[in-house]
Design a protein that fits this description.
Chain B: InterPro entries: ATPase_P-typ_cyto_dom_N, ATPase_P-typ_P_site, ATPase_P-typ_TM_dom_sf, ATPase_P-typ_transduc_dom_A_sf, HAD-like_sf, HAD_sf, P-type_ATPase_IV, P-type_ATPase_N. The complex is a heterodimer of chains A (351) and B (1253). Chain A has two domains: 58 residues; 228 residues, no CATH class. Chain A is 32% helix and 18% strand. Chain A is built from eleven helices and eleven strands. Chain B has five domains: 87 residues, no CATH class; 148 residues, Distorted Sandwich (Calcium-transporting ATPase, cytoplasmic transduction domain A), CATH 2.70.150.10; 245 residues, no CATH class; 194 residues, 3-Layer(aba) Sandwich (Rossmann fold), CATH 3.40.50.1000; 219 residues, 3-Layer(aba) Sandwich (Calcium-transporting ATPase, cytoplasmic domain N). The chains are: A alpha+beta (351), B alpha+beta (1253). At the A-B interface, helix 2, helix 5, helix 8, strand 8 and helix 11 of A face helix 12, helix 37, helix 38, helix 39 and helix 41 of B.
């Protein structure tokens, strides 16, 4: 196309022609695929989609049904503790609560223990913003100018560590699980680390550098609602203390909805619990600290297993089934209409 | 150089005197430096921002961005929220800067062109840049130089003080114009001395009228010399045929007429944009509703707690707001949050898409005219889609429907009609020749492959289906080729040009005999004295040859600079020399005639002097233009006459008449401002002194030439003009029955001509006395010198002269229909467009043309309304309307749609139109016109044309298009929604005023049916899509408010949100808007009915908008609630929840666009897949890098984490499927159903599914 000037005409050289290029692009003749909605392609699309969705839906429902889950509302059951916590002046007094429950079937495989909160709007805009990622990275930041206010520093200027409303309102109940086996009570071994995202634990949250943790947090104070400073969150495990405490990290990942659950512990699969939790009677021993009656909330403890598609939520399976059914149905309707019209057409032609 | 000093305190005139000794700087007037740029480097940023803020949408977004800086209401980090508006404004700024830079470069080039200016210091002309030219400078111009400023001509190397101009740069007219030296300076034979110029020049203030200029010069002795446009050299024109011209600069730089006329591209608002603005207000309403819901919801929510929960964070001082106040603040926060509901990028996207559309239209090879080497020009950049919605076309006739190439067909002299059968036959054969040529040219194409290397492929491909256009182009190709060959060896040029058709007139044998007889008789009886007894035959052809402004040039050499400057004095020339010159010119018969007439020495001498020189001067005025020169082509009738003259006429009619006279051996040999020479059949040369020329104007509708007969010394006025005018000016025949008979007969012939579709002109003369003329001449001179009501005075004097005429005869000139006009009109009509013809021509001519171009059908009932009485007009309108209605009712009740009943045509003339417009009958008229198949308005003035266009546009609320080629169509072109100019024979005024300029009427078909449809469909769908896209996406945030206590929280990271609109989903609609073809060009051309789709605004109207909005709501619900329900009761965090939502909405929005696309070129694939890839890449990188870069909401590692979970994929698959299922079902149902319907009703022609929604 470029050598169009070669048409030996002298005129073309002296005054270049204003004739537009005859290229496919400029003439809007680019080779193109034109999707044609023919009866065959439409029907095959609908039927194939339908078949695919139905099969996925069925397998999803099967998987969701294999999940074993038990959920215990302990804010109702420990009503005495709830009442105690209603008055914030009692924050210092301890309140213990035990809840018995029975597992009718074995929970096989990895068993996860969650705490659930209802009506706790962790996704409130001002709440979500009230944190300092810089501080949690162990950097020395001026929290006064961060989004943490008014939970940034005390009136005397001592900065809070960690700052912000999220950290301040951290869930602080402790839950232990006991297995009542032949009248003996066995504490179920629970893993308190490895529950958070690996990247959070190793990249996003870092303790300030120092020879020991308490020195690192020198000059800071615990948030007002906390009972103990941040460097005492887990006194047993150095690698689970301070900002990199798993419970803290999980709490800092603010939940999307007002009713949510957070992973608390995993069952350590050893001894009697190698295959999971055997059926039988169990008891939760709960140290009840976190008040929920203020916001008409509830607290749960949840034991659950997992499958490849996630938890016990059957919604995705249902969605696939519905979509598949709709697509198949449409396919049938189109076939019916088409057959009817074709009859009409041949009728017309015959006439 | 020389200085001009003066002042401007007079508002209507400017005055300055120019003197060499004066040293004051000419600071009062603009310099010649031009600057068309809007900005400079320093002012660009503030000025551009200022201009952009004139747009309402931009202000809206800036205000919202600033609102974000208020801490109580902010929804995002304030700095980040500035990004979208900054990006949008930056893109617009870059576009503006680039355009401005191009203008700057062009200005610089022009400003640094060179010219010669008289320098006072050096006492000589020195070379200077254009930008240094000042008002009052003396400029010396050479041949082929471009004129740097508006210059008053004071000296020309030409003996007669004439300077030839080519004004192609200014108005596109290629014929030469003559300009004269200011009176009083022309007599100087010596070269012009600037040093002695001591005059004060007074002239009007700069204005943009290219055809008017007046002023006077006051000499030191207070004598005034008037001058006018005839003495002004306009900037941008080129000097031709004149070796040297000198003048004084009157207007410079931006004050020149050329610059004042240069208005740049025009900006109109298209119908879609008007519709869009309404919908934007609907969106604003929606936004307010949503914000209100959020604000009330938040108030109720925060009021529902007995005490403050831990997640209700107090402000910095630990105080809580009351629910009412926080609800109010939340309203503002919501506005910020949901601002994207108003599509911020829509405006800039529309601009970009329109640029792309204009580019593609401009490059369409089918809209390129090879003959003129002109592609379509898109002068208005932003009304492309209006081309797809036209309901009414108003067309000019001459030059638009017809070629405006005039062919002499018949004439009537002295009451006798001469039908010119031979000429008619010749024209027929020309048509056949044309067809043969096509085949010949096609053969040539394949034997000369190097000629067509650029497009053999298309030719072969399109040859079958598009035979008509194909063959037309092939014809032009052959034409070009022969043109270039013709120059090298002109004997070979044999292809019939239309110009040849114009030039060759085969004389009517009967008339020829009578003319010969008449001429012989007059000459034989008394060779030079008895012209008085010359019959009207001789007079008739003399009038044809003289009564015009045609410039003669010979054809032996190409137009170039004159190289024989020394003026030849009559005394100093020998007979031999003249003979030699004539020999060279091969004017054999001329030299004979010279010897025969040498007995009359003064006549011979004056002739030889004037004439030889004229020949030398005009040797060069013949350009490579084939219309001008075609020297060696043997003429059928004039085999013995080896020389052709080239006639350069202002209008093609004039040339046609001169050629006609030539055919009868009345050859116009030369014309100077003072004299005109005609060769008579016997070879005698007659040189008439031209005493005065009254040029043609549209008000008088006639022109006159006053000459002194060389033999009888009588003063003769030759007048030609429209019959309606001339017939009234004839001398009262009184008792003389012969005159009355001639008049009646001629009128009869004229009516017949007009019915035949010919353009008619009457020729008349008047013989006057010397005294009368002198009186008149004085009167005229006064009028010319007048400055106040000069125009009225001139008109009056003209009328005074042109009375009591004697009718000589009349001519009929054919204006041939343009190629492909009937076909185009038929197609446009099928497309549902009503076509009106508004012409200044005679009613009969117009009706005839209307029949021949299929505007009217023989079966149609045509109503003609011609009346001067209001009551009659009203009753006529009522009667006609009643009849038409009756007919329609019958048709409707009959219910038979397959056999159309008779259709109606309406013909109306200018006077009736005036009555209708003034008498308040417009509504009745429009009602009638609406029911008619076509309407013809004849004898209408430019003003009436524009009034009619405006009337239809306003009253019927329809989209109108005006198409025309002449200056008289300008007002009509400007009045319509879309104005189209035809760059043809009549200059560029129409093109200058137009939005699109094409070169042939037939191009309108593709422009409207294909490009119009495409542009409309593309843009309409794109605008709809933008609304959909934004509503769909923004609603996701809105639904989340119900789950976060209406706190204005977002689950999507803000950067990803910004980029979503700016980058991830912006390209597919752009590509769609520029490139999508819902129906192929071939289908659109073969099924013009498809155009109705755009006419009825079917793609984008309120119902479509609402349906799309509902669809957007549905899709956003799906995109939100499927992930919500899937992740409900899990431990998912805010941003991990937002990520699948963002992803599925991206997929949905992109797939939605994919469903809309009807053609998938490589660009479509790239942008669709590319958008998803860019999104994923960006998210992965951003989520991996950003640990704490966007505090406090860093979405660290979310994308990576989710990509490792099967649930994410499951959600991403099912959500778009559910969201798009209804739309897909609807489109399949519609298209399958539609295809089936068309199969049973129409034919298999609908190869493509037409339109959805």
């Amino acid at each position: 196309m470029k050598n169009k000037k070669s048409s030996a005409s002298q005129e073309a050289e002296t005054r270049p022609s204003r004739c537009p290029d005859n290229s496919a692009f400029k003439q809007q003749k680019l080779p193109a695929w034109k999707p044609q909605l023919t009866i065959a392609s439409v029907l095959s699309t609908f039927f194939l989609t339908g078949a695919f969705c139905l099969s996925v839906g069925v397998s999803l429902i099967v998987a969701a049904n294999s999940v074993r889950e038990i959920q215990v509302d302990y804010s109702d059951k420990c009503s005495n503790c709830s009442k105690l916590r209603e008055n914030s002046s009692n924050w210092n007094s301890e309140c213990l609560c035990s809840i018995n429950f029975t597992l009718a079937e074995d929970m096989l495989g990895d068993v996860f223990m969650y705490y659930g909160l209802q009506n706790f709007y962790q996704n409130h805009r001002r709440y979500v913003l009230s944190r300092s990622d810089e501080q949690l990275l162990g950097r020395n930041v001026d929290v006064q100018n961060s989004y943490c206010a008014p939970f940034a520093a005390y009136k005397n200027g001592t900065p809070m560590a960690p700052c912000g409303a999220i950290a301040n309102s951290m869930f602080n109940d402790t839950i232990d699980l006991f297995y009542n086996f032949n009248s003996s009570v066995i504490q179920v071994p629970l893993l308190k680390t490895g529950n958070s995202w690996w990247t959070d634990k190793n990249v996003k949250f870092r303790n300030p550098d120092s020879h020991n943790l308490s020195a690192a947090f020198a000059g800071t104070a615990r948030p007002p609602y906390w009972h103990k400073p941040v460097y005492l969150l887990d006194e047993e495990d150095e690698k689970n203390n301070g900002y990199i405490n798993d419970d803290f990290i999980i709490w800092m990942r603010v939940s999307a909805f007002a009713t949510f659950k957070n992973l608390y512990r995993r069952i350590s699969r050893k001894g009697q619990f190698t295959d999971g939790l055997p059926a039988g009677n169990y008891t939760f021993h709960i140290s009840y600290n976190f008040p929920v009656t203020k916001f008409k909330g509830k607290k749960y403890v949840i034991l659950s297993t997992m499958v490849w598609s996630g938890g016990s939520n059957p919604f995705l399976g249902i969605a696939y089934l519905v979509c598949g059914a709709a697509a198949t149905l449409t396919g049938f309707i189109i076939t019916a209409i088409h057959l009817k019209l074709r009859k009409k057409k041949t009728y017309f032609q015959r006439r | 150089g020389l200085q001009a000093c003066g002042n401007r305190n007079n508002k209507t005139f400017r005055m300055f005197f120019s003197c060499v000794t004066c040293s004051l700087p000419s600071k009062y007037y603009d310099s010649n430096k031009i600057k068309t740029t809007k900005y400079s480097i320093l002012t660009f940023v503030p000025k551009n921002i200022y201009e952009q803020l004139h747009r309402f949408a931009n202000i809206y977004f800036v205000v919202i961005a600033l609102l974000n800086f208020v801490p109580v209401v902010n929804a995002f980090q304030p700095e980040v929220s500035l990004i979208p508006i900054c990006v949008i404004m930056a893109m617009t700024a870059i576009k503006d800067a680039w355009e401005d830079f191009r203008r700057y470069k062009l200005d610089k080039e022009i400003n640094h062109m060179c010219c010669y200016i008289y320098s006072r210091k050096d006492h000589a002309y020195v070379e200077k840049c254009w930008k240094d030219v000042r008002v009052g400078d003396f400029v010396q111009l050479q041949c082929n130089e471009t004129i740097p400023a508006d210059i008053l001509l004071l000296y020309s190397s030409d003996q007669n003080g004439i300077c030839h101009l080519e004004t192609a740069n200014l108005d596109g007219e290629t014929n030469l114009k003559q300009r004269r030296v200011v009176m009083g300076f022309s007599s100087q034979n010596t070269s012009f001395e600037p040093e002695f110029f001591q005059n004060t020049i007074i002239c009007e203030m700069p204005n943009n009228d290219l055809n008017k200029f007046k002023g006077y010069m006051e000499q030191p002795n207070h004598e005034r010399i008037g001058f006018n446009i005839e003495n002004l050299l306009l900037r941008g024109c080129t000097i031709r045929n004149t070796e040297v011209a000198i003048g004084i600069v009157i207007y410079a730089g931006h004050e020149t007429k050329a610059m004042l006329n240069n208005n740049g591209p025009r900006y109109k608002r298209s119908k879609i944009e008007r519709r869009m603005n309404v919908d934007i207000f609907l969106c604003v309403g929606l936004l307010f509703t949503m914000c209100l819901v959020g604000s009330i919801g938040h108030g109720i929510w925060s009021g529902s707690f007995p005490e403050h929960p831990p997640y209700d964070v107090p402000d910095e001082n630990g105080n809580f707001l009351s629910p009412v106040l926080s609800g109010f603040y939340m309203f503002l926060t919501m506005i910020i949050l949901l601002q994207v509901l108003i599509p911020i990028s829509l405006y800039v996207s529309i601009e970009l898409v329109k640029l792309g559309q204009v580019f593609l239209i401009h490059n369409d090879i089918d809209l390129y005219d090879e003959e003129a080497d002109l592609p379509i020009q898109c002068r208005a950049l932003n009304i492309t889609e209006d081309l797809g919605q036209i309901q009414y076309i108003f067309s000019d006739k001459t030059g638009t429907l017809t070629e405006n190439k005039m062919v002499f067909r018949r004439c009537t002299v002295d009451g006798h009609e001469f039908s010119h059968q031979e000429n008619a036959k010749r024209l027929e054969t020309h048509k056949e020749l044309d067809l043969e040529d096509e085949d010949f040219a096609k053969l040539q194409q394949f034997t000369l492959p190097q000629m067509n290397i650029e497009r053999p492929a298309t030719y072969q491909r399109t040859m079958r289906p598009l035979r008509r256009s194909q063959s037309a182009r092939a014809h032009f190709q052959g034409h070009t080729r022969s043109r270039s060959l013709g120059r090298r060896d002109s004997n070979q040029s044999q292809v019939a040009f239309s110009s040849t058709i114009e030039k060759d007139v085969t004389p009517d044998s009967r008339l020829l005999r009578r003319v010969r007889e008449a001429a012989l008789r007059t000459e034989n009886l008394s060779p030079f004295i008895h012209m008085k007894t010359a019959t009207s035959f001789t007079d008739f052809f003399l009038a044809l040859a003289i009564c015009n402004t045609v410039v003669v040039s010979t054809t032996t050499e190409p137009r170039q600079r004159v190289t024989v400057p020394p003026p030849i004095k009559p005394s100093g020339i020998t007979l031999e020399k003249i003979h030699q010159i004539f020999q060279r010119l091969k004017l054999v018969s001329l030299s004979q005639s010279f010897s025969s007439s040498q007995s009359s020495s003064d006549l011979g001498a004056s002739f030889s002097a004037k004439n030889t020189e004229e020949h030398l001067a005009t040797l060069d005025c013949c350009d490579n233009d084939d219309s001008c020169c075609d020297s060696s082509r043997g003429s059928v009738t004039h085999g013995t006459l080896p020389t052709d003259f080239c006639y350069e006429a202002e209008s093609p009619d004039e040339a046609a008449l001169v050629y006609a006279a030539q055919a009868y051996s009345f050859t116009l040999v030369s014309r100077t401002p003072e004299q005109v020479t005609v060769r008579l059949p016997q070879g005698t040369l007659l040189t008439f002194d031209i005493l005065y020329t009254l040029g043609f104007d549209s008000v008088r509708k006639r022109m006159s030439v006053v000459v002194r007969h060389p033999l009888t010394k009588e003063i003769i006025v030759y007048t030609k003009g429209a019959d309606s005018v001339i017939m009234d000016l004839l001398e009262d025949p009184g008792k003389e029955r012969r005159m009355k008979r001639i008049k009646d007969k001629t009128q009869k012939h004229l009516d017949y001509y007009a019915r035949d579709g010919l353009r008619t002109l009457c020729i008349a003369k008047k013989v006057g006395s010397e005294d009368d003329f002198q009186k008149w001449a004085n009167f005229r001179q006064e009028a010319e010198a007048a400055i106040d009501n000069r125009d009225e005075l001139l008109m009056e004097t003209a009328q005074h002269l042109e009375t009591k005429l004697t009718l000589l005869g009349a001519t009929g000139i054919e204006d041939r229909l343009q190629d492909g006009v009937p076909d185009t009109i038929a197609a446009l009509r099928e497309a549902g467009i009503q076509i009106w013809v508004l012409t200044g021509d005679k009613q009969e001519t117009a009706v005839n043309i209307a029949y021949s171009c299929k505007l009217l059908d023989q079966r149609d009932t045509v109503f003609t309304i011609n009346t001067e009485n209001k009551e009659t007009c009203e009753s006529l309108l009522n009667l006609t309307l009643e009849e038409v209605r009756k007919n329609y009712e019958v048709e409707n009740h009959g219910g038979n749609f397959l056999i159309p009943g008779p259709e109606f045509g309406l013909v109306i003339d200018g006077r009736t139109l005036d009555i209708i417009l003034q008498g308040g009958l417009e509504e009745r008229f429009l009602e009638l016109a609406r029911l008619c198949r076509s309407v013809l308005c004849c004898r209408s003035t430019p003003l009436q044309k524009s009034i009619v266009v405006k009337l239809v546009r306003r009253q019927l609320k329809v989209m109108t298009l005006s198409i025309g080629d002449g200056a008289n169509d300008v007002s009509m072109i400007q009045a319509a929604d879309v104005g189209i100019g035809i760059s043809g024979q009549e200059g560029m005024q129409a093109v200058m005023a137009s939005d699109f300029a094409i070169s042939r009427f037939k191009h309108l078909k593709k422009l409207l049916l294909v490009h119009g449809h495409w542009c409309y469909a593309r843009l309409a769908k794109m605008v709809i899509y933008f609304f959909y896209k934004n509503v769909c996406y923004v609603n996701l945030l809105f639904w989340y408010q119900f789950f976060c206590g209406f706190s204005g929280n977002t689950m999507i990271d803000y950067w990803q949100m910004i980029f979503f609109n700016l980058f991830f989903t912006s390209l597919p609609p752009l590509v769609f808007g520029v490139l999508d073809r819902d129906v192929s060009a071939e289908t659109l051309l073969s099924l013009p009915e498809l155009y109705k789709n755009g006419q009825n605004s079917e793609i984008y109207k309120l119902s479509t908008f609402i349906i799309t909005m509902l669809d957007a709501f549905y899709q956003s619900l799906v995109c939100f609630f499927v992930p919500y329900l899937a992740y409900k009761d899990s431990d998912i965090d805010v941003f991990s929840f937002g990520n699948p939502i963002n992803t599925v909405s991206l997929l949905t929005i992109i797939l939605h666009q994919a469903l809309e696309m009807k053609t998938w070129t490589l660009f479509h694939w790239i942008t669709i897949i590319g958008s998803v890839v860019i999104y994923l890449t960006f998210s992965l990188i951003y989520n991996a890098v950003c640990v704490a870069c966007n505090p406090p909401t860093d979405p660290y590692w979310i994308m990576e984490k989710q990509l490792s979970e099967p649930a994410f994929y499951l959600v991403c698959l099912i959500t778009p499927a559910i969201a798009l299922l209804p739309r897909f079902e609807q489109s399949t149902f519609l298209s399958l159903h539609f295809v089936n319907l068309t199969y049973s009703v129409a034919s298999v022609r609908y190869s493509a599914p037409v339109s959805q929604v």
